[in-house]
Amino acid sequence: MAQRYGEDWAAEFATAHEGNPASHPTPVAMDLHNHEVGRRIAMENPDASPDELASLVEQAVRDGEMVVISQDDKLVRSDQLDFGQTRDTGPGKEWPTDNPERRGHTTPEDPSAYPERGY
C-alpha cells in the first residue's frame, strides 16, 4: 500500500481498523509497530517487487525489528522468541473484548487522503 498510495495513506488505512473498541491494546500496539516497520521498508525500497518486499519484511522479523506477543502477553522483539513461543490466540484463547484500559481511544480520525478519488 505504501508503494502504491504513499506512506501517509497507507498509515491511515492500516490504522483505521485498530480503533475497534473490542480490540485489545496489546495486539493493537503490535500491529501499529509492525505496520510502521513495513511502511518504512516499502519507502526505503520504492522499486522492490512484492517478492523482494516480502523477503525484506521476513529479514526484519529475523533481525528483531518487528514485535510479537509472548505467552505471558508481553510485546517482545521478533528475534527473542522461537517458533511456537508466541501467544496462542486459537479458538477459546481470543483476546478479551471488554477493554477499559483503552480509555476511549477507539475512534480513528477521518482519513485525509482518498486515492480512489485522486487525492
Shape: flat
Number of helices: 4
Oligomer: single chain
Please report the distance between the alpha carbons of the first and last residues. 15 Å
Q: Give the number of DSSP strands.
A: 2
Structural class: mainly alpha
**Uncertain segments:** none
- Residue share in β-strands: 5-15%
Question: Mean pLDDT, as a whole number?
Answer: 85
The residue fraction in helices comes out at: 25-40%
Description:
By secondary structure, this protein is mainly α. It has helices at 2-5, 7-16, 25-44, 50-62; strands at 67-69, 75-77. A two-stranded antiparallel ribbon has the order 1-2. Strand 1 and strand 2 form a beta hairpin. The longest helix has 20 residues, at 25-44. The mean pLDDT is 85.
